[in-house]
Amino acid sequence: MYFVQFLLLYNIYCFANVNNNGVDSSDLYQYSNLGNYGETRQEHNGVKLSHTDSMATTLEESIKRIGMLEEKLRAYDKDSMRIKILQEKLLATEELTQKHSYRIDMLEKRLQKSEHVRRIQVNVLQRRLKVFENRFRVAEEHLSHLDDFEVRLSLGEQHQSELIFESRRRSRTDRHLTNEVYFQNNEVTQAAEGFAGIGVNPSNYKERPKTGHSLSREKLITGYISKGMRDRRDVQHLRIGFSTLHNQHGESVHVGQTILYHSVLFNEDGAFDSSTGMYRCPVSGVYFFTIAACSSNSQRIHVNLILNGQVKFEVFGGVGNDNTIIHDSLGSGSTILRCHAGDMVWTRILVGENIGRLTSFTGFLIWGDSQSS
Questions:
Q1: Labelling 37: which of 57, 94, 156, 222 has CA 20 to 30 A away?
Q2: Could you count the other beta carbons within 10 Å of the beta carbon of residue 277?
Q3: DSSP character for 42?
Protein backbone atom coordinates (compact mmCIF):
# COMPACT_ATOMS: atom_id res chain seq x y z
CA MET A 1 0.00 0.00 0.00
CA TYR A 2 2.80 2.42 0.85
CA PHE A 3 4.49 1.55 -2.37
CA VAL A 4 1.40 2.62 -4.34
CA GLN A 5 1.23 6.00 -2.57
CA PHE A 6 4.88 6.58 -3.30
CA LEU A 7 4.31 5.93 -7.00
CA LEU A 8 1.35 8.38 -7.05
CA LEU A 9 3.35 11.23 -5.47
CA TYR A 10 6.28 10.57 -7.73
CA ASN A 11 4.09 10.85 -10.84
CA ILE A 12 2.54 14.14 -9.63
CA TYR A 13 5.97 15.57 -9.07
CA CYS A 14 7.11 14.57 -12.50
CA PHE A 15 4.06 16.16 -14.18
CA ALA A 16 4.47 19.35 -12.21
CA ASN A 17 8.05 19.97 -13.39
CA VAL A 18 7.87 18.75 -16.97
CA ASN A 19 5.51 20.23 -19.67
CA ASN A 20 4.10 18.43 -22.58
CA ASN A 21 6.52 20.06 -25.13
CA GLY A 22 9.54 19.85 -23.02
CA VAL A 23 9.57 23.68 -22.12
CA ASP A 24 10.44 24.55 -18.52
CA SER A 25 10.12 27.82 -16.52
CA SER A 26 13.47 29.21 -17.67
CA ASP A 27 12.31 29.16 -21.29
CA LEU A 28 9.25 31.17 -20.37
CA TYR A 29 11.41 33.71 -18.68
CA GLN A 30 13.47 34.12 -21.79
CA TYR A 31 10.37 34.67 -23.85
CA SER A 32 9.30 37.51 -21.54
CA ASN A 33 12.57 39.27 -22.01
CA LEU A 34 12.24 39.28 -25.78
CA GLY A 35 9.22 41.62 -25.70
CA ASN A 36 6.64 39.16 -26.65
CA TYR A 37 5.29 38.87 -23.25
CA GLY A 38 1.54 38.94 -24.15
CA GLU A 39 1.72 36.43 -26.82
CA THR A 40 4.13 34.46 -24.90
CA ARG A 41 1.87 34.56 -21.92
CA GLN A 42 -1.03 33.25 -23.89
CA GLU A 43 1.06 30.66 -25.45
CA HIS A 44 2.42 29.81 -22.09
CA ASN A 45 -1.07 29.52 -20.66
CA GLY A 46 -2.09 27.37 -23.58
CA VAL A 47 0.92 25.29 -23.02
CA LYS A 48 0.11 25.05 -19.34
CA LEU A 49 -3.50 24.24 -20.15
CA SER A 50 -2.52 21.57 -22.54
CA HIS A 51 0.05 20.44 -20.07
CA THR A 52 -2.61 20.35 -17.38
CA ASP A 53 -4.91 18.35 -19.61
CA SER A 54 -2.17 15.97 -20.35
CA MET A 55 -1.38 15.76 -16.64
CA ALA A 56 -5.06 15.10 -15.91
CA THR A 57 -5.10 12.44 -18.52
CA THR A 58 -1.89 11.06 -17.17
CA LEU A 59 -3.30 11.22 -13.65
CA GLU A 60 -6.40 9.37 -14.75
CA GLU A 61 -4.25 6.78 -16.37
CA SER A 62 -2.09 6.67 -13.26
CA ILE A 63 -5.15 6.32 -11.09
CA LYS A 64 -6.35 3.53 -13.30
CA ARG A 65 -2.93 1.95 -13.14
CA ILE A 66 -2.90 2.45 -9.39
CA GLY A 67 -6.33 0.78 -9.17
CA MET A 68 -5.07 -2.05 -11.25
CA LEU A 69 -1.97 -2.28 -9.11
CA GLU A 70 -4.10 -2.21 -5.97
CA GLU A 71 -6.22 -5.03 -7.37
CA LYS A 72 -3.07 -6.91 -8.24
CA LEU A 73 -1.74 -6.14 -4.77
CA ARG A 74 -4.92 -7.39 -3.17
CA ALA A 75 -4.70 -10.46 -5.33
CA TYR A 76 -1.07 -10.76 -4.28
CA ASP A 77 -2.11 -10.43 -0.63
CA LYS A 78 -4.72 -13.11 -1.16
CA ASP A 79 -2.11 -15.25 -2.87
CA SER A 80 0.25 -14.54 0.01
CA MET A 81 -2.39 -15.63 2.49
CA ARG A 82 -3.07 -18.72 0.44
CA ILE A 83 0.66 -19.36 0.22
CA LYS A 84 0.96 -18.93 3.98
CA ILE A 85 -1.96 -21.31 4.52
CA LEU A 86 -0.39 -23.72 2.08
CA GLN A 87 2.92 -23.40 3.92
CA GLU A 88 1.18 -24.15 7.20
CA LYS A 89 -0.57 -27.10 5.58
CA LEU A 90 2.74 -28.17 4.13
CA LEU A 91 4.33 -28.03 7.58
CA ALA A 92 1.44 -30.01 9.02
CA THR A 93 1.72 -32.43 6.13
CA GLU A 94 5.44 -32.79 6.76
CA GLU A 95 4.81 -33.46 10.44
CA LEU A 96 2.10 -35.95 9.54
CA THR A 97 4.42 -37.47 6.96
CA GLN A 98 7.10 -37.85 9.60
CA LYS A 99 4.61 -39.50 11.91
CA HIS A 100 3.42 -41.79 9.14
CA SER A 101 7.01 -42.50 8.18
CA TYR A 102 7.71 -43.53 11.77
CA ARG A 103 4.62 -45.71 11.78
CA ILE A 104 5.60 -47.15 8.42
CA ASP A 105 9.05 -47.95 9.80
CA MET A 106 7.47 -49.62 12.82
CA LEU A 107 5.07 -51.55 10.58
CA GLU A 108 7.95 -52.63 8.35
CA LYS A 109 9.84 -53.88 11.39
CA ARG A 110 6.76 -55.71 12.62
CA LEU A 111 6.21 -57.09 9.14
CA GLN A 112 9.80 -58.35 9.05
CA LYS A 113 9.33 -59.98 12.42
CA SER A 114 6.01 -61.45 11.29
CA GLU A 115 7.62 -62.80 8.14
CA HIS A 116 10.39 -64.34 10.22
CA VAL A 117 7.87 -65.88 12.58
CA ARG A 118 5.77 -67.01 9.62
CA ARG A 119 8.77 -68.70 8.04
CA ILE A 120 9.49 -70.47 11.32
CA GLN A 121 5.84 -71.52 11.61
CA VAL A 122 5.83 -72.70 8.00
CA ASN A 123 8.93 -74.80 8.68
CA VAL A 124 7.34 -76.25 11.81
CA LEU A 125 4.11 -76.97 9.94
CA GLN A 126 6.04 -78.60 7.13
CA ARG A 127 7.85 -80.83 9.60
CA ARG A 128 4.57 -81.67 11.32
CA LEU A 129 3.01 -82.35 7.93
CA LYS A 130 5.81 -84.79 7.15
CA VAL A 131 5.26 -86.47 10.51
CA PHE A 132 1.51 -86.69 9.83
CA GLU A 133 2.18 -88.08 6.37
CA ASN A 134 4.41 -90.75 7.89
CA ARG A 135 1.76 -91.51 10.49
CA PHE A 136 -0.87 -91.62 7.78
CA ARG A 137 1.19 -94.11 5.80
CA VAL A 138 1.67 -96.20 8.94
CA ALA A 139 -2.07 -95.93 9.65
CA GLU A 140 -2.83 -97.07 6.11
CA GLU A 141 -0.52 -100.04 6.60
CA HIS A 142 -2.22 -100.80 9.92
CA LEU A 143 -5.58 -100.43 8.21
CA SER A 144 -4.59 -102.93 5.57
CA HIS A 145 -3.42 -105.26 8.34
CA LEU A 146 -6.70 -104.65 10.14
CA ASP A 147 -8.61 -105.51 6.99
CA ASP A 148 -6.69 -108.76 6.79
CA PHE A 149 -7.26 -109.30 10.49
CA GLU A 150 -10.97 -108.56 10.03
CA VAL A 151 -11.16 -111.21 7.34
CA ARG A 152 -9.28 -113.62 9.56
CA LEU A 153 -11.48 -112.64 12.50
CA SER A 154 -14.63 -113.27 10.51
CA LEU A 155 -13.28 -116.65 9.53
CA GLY A 156 -12.25 -117.24 13.14
CA GLU A 157 -15.70 -116.26 14.39
CA GLN A 158 -17.24 -118.61 11.88
CA HIS A 159 -14.87 -121.35 13.01
CA GLN A 160 -15.59 -120.39 16.62
CA SER A 161 -19.33 -120.70 16.07
CA GLU A 162 -18.73 -124.10 14.52
CA LEU A 163 -16.55 -125.09 17.46
CA ILE A 164 -19.16 -123.83 19.92
CA PHE A 165 -21.81 -125.85 18.13
CA GLU A 166 -19.52 -128.88 18.18
CA SER A 167 -18.70 -128.29 21.86
CA ARG A 168 -22.38 -128.10 22.74
CA ARG A 169 -23.06 -131.23 20.71
CA ARG A 170 -20.24 -133.00 22.53
CA SER A 171 -21.58 -131.73 25.85
CA ARG A 172 -24.97 -133.20 25.06
CA THR A 173 -23.29 -136.43 23.99
CA ASP A 174 -21.19 -136.43 27.17
CA ARG A 175 -24.27 -135.90 29.31
CA HIS A 176 -26.00 -138.71 27.46
CA LEU A 177 -23.00 -141.01 27.98
CA THR A 178 -22.77 -139.99 31.64
CA ASN A 179 -26.44 -140.77 32.15
CA GLU A 180 -26.02 -144.07 30.33
CA VAL A 181 -23.05 -145.02 32.52
CA TYR A 182 -25.01 -144.01 35.60
CA PHE A 183 -27.98 -146.11 34.55
CA GLN A 184 -25.73 -149.07 33.74
CA ASN A 185 -24.10 -148.86 37.16
CA ASN A 186 -27.52 -148.73 38.78
CA GLU A 187 -28.65 -151.74 36.79
CA VAL A 188 -25.52 -153.67 37.75
CA THR A 189 -25.96 -152.75 41.40
CA GLN A 190 -29.62 -153.68 41.42
CA ALA A 191 -28.93 -156.97 39.62
CA ALA A 192 -26.14 -157.83 42.05
CA GLU A 193 -28.31 -157.03 45.07
CA GLY A 194 -31.18 -159.06 43.63
CA PHE A 195 -28.94 -161.99 42.91
CA ALA A 196 -27.53 -161.94 46.44
CA GLY A 197 -30.99 -161.66 48.05
CA ILE A 198 -32.69 -164.42 46.09
CA GLY A 199 -29.99 -167.01 46.75
CA VAL A 200 -30.15 -168.79 43.42
CA ASN A 201 -29.28 -172.52 43.62
CA PRO A 202 -27.36 -173.85 40.61
CA SER A 203 -29.32 -177.16 40.77
CA ASN A 204 -32.42 -175.25 39.76
CA TYR A 205 -30.87 -174.62 36.39
CA LYS A 206 -30.36 -178.36 35.86
CA GLU A 207 -34.04 -179.15 36.38
CA ARG A 208 -35.14 -176.72 33.70
CA PRO A 209 -35.06 -177.67 30.07
CA LYS A 210 -32.25 -175.73 28.52
CA THR A 211 -32.08 -174.63 24.97
CA GLY A 212 -29.15 -173.04 23.21
CA HIS A 213 -30.69 -169.63 23.50
CA SER A 214 -31.53 -170.00 27.20
CA LEU A 215 -28.05 -171.33 28.01
CA SER A 216 -26.36 -168.38 26.34
CA ARG A 217 -28.77 -166.00 28.04
CA GLU A 218 -28.06 -167.58 31.44
CA LYS A 219 -24.33 -167.36 30.89
CA LEU A 220 -24.66 -163.74 29.82
CA ILE A 221 -26.78 -162.83 32.83
CA THR A 222 -24.52 -164.75 35.24
CA GLY A 223 -21.39 -163.16 33.80
CA TYR A 224 -22.90 -159.70 33.84
CA ILE A 225 -24.01 -160.09 37.46
CA SER A 226 -20.61 -161.47 38.49
CA LYS A 227 -18.90 -158.57 36.71
CA GLY A 228 -21.23 -156.08 38.41
CA MET A 229 -20.45 -157.51 41.82
CA ARG A 230 -16.74 -157.41 41.05
CA ASP A 231 -16.97 -153.84 39.77
CA ARG A 232 -18.90 -152.84 42.88
CA ARG A 233 -16.15 -154.12 45.13
CA ASP A 234 -13.48 -152.35 42.98
CA VAL A 235 -15.35 -149.04 42.90
CA GLN A 236 -15.56 -148.99 46.68
CA HIS A 237 -11.75 -148.94 46.84
CA LEU A 238 -11.14 -146.46 43.94
CA ARG A 239 -11.58 -142.79 44.85
CA ILE A 240 -9.95 -141.02 41.90
CA GLY A 241 -10.87 -137.46 41.01
CA PHE A 242 -10.12 -133.76 41.52
CA SER A 243 -11.85 -130.38 41.41
CA THR A 244 -10.09 -126.99 41.25
CA LEU A 245 -10.95 -123.29 41.02
CA HIS A 246 -8.79 -120.45 39.71
CA ASN A 247 -10.12 -118.12 42.45
CA GLN A 248 -7.86 -115.17 41.61
CA HIS A 249 -8.99 -111.92 40.01
CA GLY A 250 -7.32 -110.56 36.89
CA GLU A 251 -4.27 -112.80 36.62
CA SER A 252 -2.43 -111.92 33.40
CA VAL A 253 -1.53 -114.78 31.08
CA HIS A 254 -0.18 -115.12 27.58
CA VAL A 255 -1.33 -117.29 24.72
CA GLY A 256 -0.26 -120.91 25.10
CA GLN A 257 0.26 -120.69 28.86
CA THR A 258 -0.96 -123.45 31.17
CA ILE A 259 -3.70 -122.22 33.51
CA LEU A 260 -2.91 -122.48 37.22
CA TYR A 261 -5.69 -123.14 39.75
CA HIS A 262 -5.08 -121.65 43.17
CA SER A 263 -7.93 -123.34 45.06
CA VAL A 264 -7.99 -127.16 45.12
CA LEU A 265 -11.50 -128.17 46.20
CA PHE A 266 -11.02 -131.93 45.89
CA ASN A 267 -7.88 -133.98 45.28
CA GLU A 268 -8.51 -137.37 46.91
CA ASP A 269 -5.68 -139.27 45.24
CA GLY A 270 -3.30 -136.27 45.16
CA ALA A 271 -2.78 -136.67 41.42
CA PHE A 272 -3.42 -132.98 40.66
CA ASP A 273 -0.34 -130.72 40.97
CA SER A 274 -1.44 -127.15 41.77
CA SER A 275 2.06 -125.78 41.08
CA THR A 276 1.93 -126.88 37.42
CA GLY A 277 -1.84 -127.03 36.87
CA MET A 278 -1.53 -130.60 35.53
CA TYR A 279 -3.34 -133.84 36.46
CA ARG A 280 -1.52 -137.18 36.22
CA CYS A 281 -3.89 -140.11 35.69
CA PRO A 282 -3.14 -142.66 38.45
CA VAL A 283 -4.75 -145.65 36.66
CA SER A 284 -5.82 -146.51 33.15
CA GLY A 285 -9.48 -146.18 32.38
CA VAL A 286 -12.25 -143.89 31.22
CA TYR A 287 -12.23 -140.39 32.75
CA PHE A 288 -14.74 -137.58 32.79
CA PHE A 289 -13.38 -133.97 32.50
CA THR A 290 -15.21 -130.65 32.58
CA ILE A 291 -14.00 -127.04 32.17
CA ALA A 292 -15.66 -123.71 32.98
CA ALA A 293 -13.89 -120.56 31.69
CA CYS A 294 -14.53 -116.82 31.98
CA SER A 295 -12.57 -113.59 31.53
CA SER A 296 -12.01 -110.81 34.08
CA ASN A 297 -11.58 -107.86 31.70
CA SER A 298 -14.65 -108.02 29.45
CA GLN A 299 -12.88 -109.95 26.72
CA ARG A 300 -13.48 -113.29 25.10
CA ILE A 301 -11.62 -116.32 26.37
CA HIS A 302 -10.75 -119.59 24.64
CA VAL A 303 -9.44 -122.57 26.64
CA ASN A 304 -8.21 -125.96 25.42
CA LEU A 305 -8.12 -129.30 27.24
CA ILE A 306 -4.77 -130.96 26.53
CA LEU A 307 -4.01 -134.70 26.86
CA ASN A 308 -0.29 -135.45 26.48
CA GLY A 309 0.17 -132.35 24.28
CA GLN A 310 -2.87 -132.97 22.07
CA VAL A 311 -5.99 -130.79 22.07
CA LYS A 312 -9.04 -132.88 22.96
CA PHE A 313 -11.77 -130.26 23.20
CA GLU A 314 -12.26 -126.49 23.55
CA VAL A 315 -14.31 -124.10 25.65
CA PHE A 316 -15.30 -120.55 24.66
CA GLY A 317 -16.18 -117.88 27.23
CA GLY A 318 -18.22 -114.80 26.33
CA VAL A 319 -17.80 -111.18 27.35
CA GLY A 320 -18.05 -110.61 31.09
CA ASN A 321 -16.08 -109.99 34.27
CA ASP A 322 -15.88 -111.09 37.87
CA ASN A 323 -18.21 -108.37 39.14
CA THR A 324 -20.95 -108.43 36.50
CA ILE A 325 -21.46 -111.91 35.11
CA ILE A 326 -23.72 -111.63 32.08
CA HIS A 327 -25.52 -114.28 30.05
CA ASP A 328 -23.17 -116.62 28.19
CA SER A 329 -20.12 -115.00 29.83
CA LEU A 330 -19.13 -118.30 31.47
CA GLY A 331 -18.32 -120.94 28.89
CA SER A 332 -18.24 -124.60 29.91
CA GLY A 333 -17.78 -127.99 28.35
CA SER A 334 -17.29 -131.64 29.29
CA THR A 335 -15.83 -134.73 27.68
CA ILE A 336 -15.05 -138.40 28.37
CA LEU A 337 -11.55 -139.63 27.54
CA ARG A 338 -9.77 -142.95 27.77
CA CYS A 339 -6.49 -142.38 29.57
CA HIS A 340 -3.57 -144.54 30.55
CA ALA A 341 -1.72 -144.50 33.84
CA GLY A 342 0.77 -141.62 33.81
CA ASP A 343 -1.04 -139.57 31.15
CA MET A 344 -0.94 -135.80 31.75
CA VAL A 345 -4.07 -133.68 31.40
CA TRP A 346 -4.12 -129.87 31.71
CA THR A 347 -5.83 -126.72 30.39
CA ARG A 348 -4.23 -124.09 28.19
CA ILE A 349 -5.24 -120.51 27.29
CA LEU A 350 -5.63 -119.89 23.56
CA VAL A 351 -7.44 -116.51 23.42
CA GLY A 352 -7.59 -113.95 26.22
CA GLU A 353 -5.26 -112.11 28.57
CA ASN A 354 -6.95 -112.23 31.99
CA ILE A 355 -8.55 -115.24 33.65
CA GLY A 356 -11.62 -114.82 35.83
CA ARG A 357 -11.77 -116.26 39.32
CA LEU A 358 -14.70 -118.57 38.42
CA THR A 359 -12.63 -120.56 35.92
CA SER A 360 -12.57 -124.21 37.07
CA PHE A 361 -11.17 -127.62 36.06
CA THR A 362 -12.69 -130.92 37.30
CA GLY A 363 -12.16 -134.59 36.46
CA PHE A 364 -12.77 -138.06 37.87
CA LEU A 365 -12.47 -141.73 36.93
CA ILE A 366 -15.63 -143.40 35.61
CA TRP A 367 -14.20 -146.91 35.45
CA GLY A 368 -10.77 -148.43 35.27
CA ASP A 369 -9.45 -150.91 32.73
CA SER A 370 -10.11 -153.79 35.16
CA GLN A 371 -13.76 -152.79 35.13
CA SER A 372 -13.97 -152.65 31.34
CA SER A 373 -12.33 -156.03 30.74
A1: 57
A2: 19
A3: H
